[in-house]
Design brief:
Chain lengths: 545, 262
Amino acid sequence: MSTAVTTVTPVMPAKHYLNDNYGIRSWLLTKDHKRIAILYLVSITFFFFIGGLFAALIRMELLTPQGDLFQSDTYNKLFSMHGINMVFFFLVPSIPATLGNFVLPIMLGARDLAFPKINLLSWYIYIAGALFSLATMVSGGVDTGWTFYTPLSSGFLRTHVVLIAVGVIMAGFSSIFTGLNFIVTVHRMRAPGLTWGRLPLFVWSNYATSLIMVLATPVLAITLTLLALERGFHIGIFDPKLGGDPVLFQHMFWFYSHPAVYIMILPGMGVISELVTCFSRKRVFGYAFVAFSSIAIAVFGFLVWAHHMFVAGVSQYSAMVFSLLSFAVAIPSAVKVFNWTATMYKGSISLETPMLYALGFIGLFTVGGLTGIMLAALGLDVQVHDTYFVIAHFHYVMVGGMVTAYLGGLHFWWPKITGRMYPEAPAKLAALITFIGFNLTFFPQFILGYLGMPRRYHAYPPEFQVLNVLSSAGASVLAVGFLLPAIYFMWSLKYGAIAGDNPWRATGLEWQTTSPPPTHNFHEVPVVTTEPYAYGDEPEVTIVH
Amino acid sequence: MSTSQTTTTEHHPALAHQFDSMAQQQEASTFGMWVFLLTEIMMFGGLFTAYLIYRIKYYDGFVAGSTSISVSWGFANTLVLIASSFTMAMAVWAGEKGIRKAQMGFLIGTMILGAAFLCIKGEEYYTKYDECHIPGRVIGKGFDATGGCSAQDPKLGNIAEEVQQHAKELGKTVPEASALQTARQSEIFFSFYFLMTGLHAFHMLVGMGLLSWLFLRSKRGEFGPAYHTPLELGGLYWHFVDIVWIFLFPLLYLISRHAHAV
């Protein structure tokens, strides 16, 4: 233990990836994983606010029991486009394509991902898919719901199902390419001395995510292709009128889309592992358990899809098996929550903004996870299927979990990405507003669902109004919480304090290079000699901004 | 990692900046190709699963559909593709040895065999078009169990008639209603026949594109003992597409052939 206190004044490096070259070409043709991460960041932020706009319209309609603001057909389109944009164009790429793209190669001590051209291609494919989604929106939208259930989608609706299916398939291929790149990079590009047992937990969780992306997404591609072909050529695959089986569509769709839910939470868990250990100044409790629980969630995630179909006429025995397996997913998830808590125990916790988000995540994810266990129980699921209980559960995991972790990670690595600090006071305020707004929005929905309010209707009985007004009020608070970071992040690009290489005194290779890093990440190849979270041994350094 | 510590004395022009050595680059690229093929397996896997479910559900229709396609052409195509796998393997071998002429020759040979496969497939598709067996009512004349376009030429492809005819040969009778039911089910078989062979043919087309690109590169003399990774990756892809066919052939052409000896 060192007792001498060193004082460091942070400086901006003269040459880094942002000022290496200039101009629109240097961005659109870049093969630098850090710049591609920023391209993704801008694109998915755009879709986050588009999806948010649809959510705002939904909450406005639900202020009153009557369907007065929108007609039911319009309302169908609103929740469909909200779900499709948020799931496929924001949540799936969110952490892997932005924070993962940026820090994963640096965490490995590599100069870039294994296939930089494929990385850029994945962004272009995402953009092409995004254009299809935008085209769908401006040409009148789609009203299938984000689940595209047949035969409604393949035989009955007159909206642009094929257009959005092509867009979603493309978004899927872009995530396949990201996953492929991550897997190969983790296997083949680690710095000398960086063994599997020394990998940061963020790398482990992104690796598990990549396995799901690579193995599940192709099934979505073929399923939506079949759907589009059935719609276009009237061949019978899913439409019972043509001899097809609609339940087969549900099986094939959820074979992707349930694992996809873990694509949308595992990277967030990885972020939280980094944050909790850093701001508790303590080694992660049970490193191996946290690492392997990510892999376990990925594996179990492939075996639970039919719990979405308990009321779709699957056999009782398969429903029981799927229910049991769904309970099993709770084990690795709980391992993570307990280990984060144990990591904090007797740590020297400091409540900077990223840690506020991490604490929020642990609470909200626990609520989302526990209600997930309730839903995995056959008897209860049949009662609350397709009610707001499911909506609330899903949003506690996806927004309370993933979006919270995404914002926490963004604050944590913002100094590394831009070289500047965000302003701490408004950031803490935003974290608080987000937490309050989120709970106000979604907790009433648990009650609404339990009382029997079904999802996907624009009108509801008058006795549900109080809870719905609370929820809509919460949504507007939440919107403020999401807009604030957008504003002060932009502000900090010019006026933020110079961050220095390691403002959090964190371990991990990404903090050993400059902020922002040079184009090739490191001036010399780092050699790893220690475990990933050697907190407690480092010398005291005070950073004066 | 041992490979990242080896410093290459001379910098190969094909070595990308993110890799430390040619060996690391080759390992990463090959591994990446295998992961990509894994995604392909999952994609075809979805289609194969759907196929199996309907094959169990509509077995009679699948038998009727399967017996109506040409097992000889299918078998010929299997041989063509196995031969093309051989020439592809030889092209990779010539790449490792750095024999430019042989690389080019074997690549051309592989492309000719690939083209032959696609021609035979086209001929089979045309026959199905002619027999009104294209499912749905969008492309071509449209299959119709109750006659439809085949009413114009009763000799051609009326599955219901064939089912009754075949039953008669075995000394049984099949009522017309159930023969028509089987015919309607066979339409699902044809859906899968065109989807599966179509997706496979699409992969063949992509493969032909890859081979042309590899041919140009080997003409420029880019491949030799030190660097032939693209040839190897092209080879992996081509063999994968061949293996898919090895599964497609029995699944589509050989359903219950023993009961329908031609």
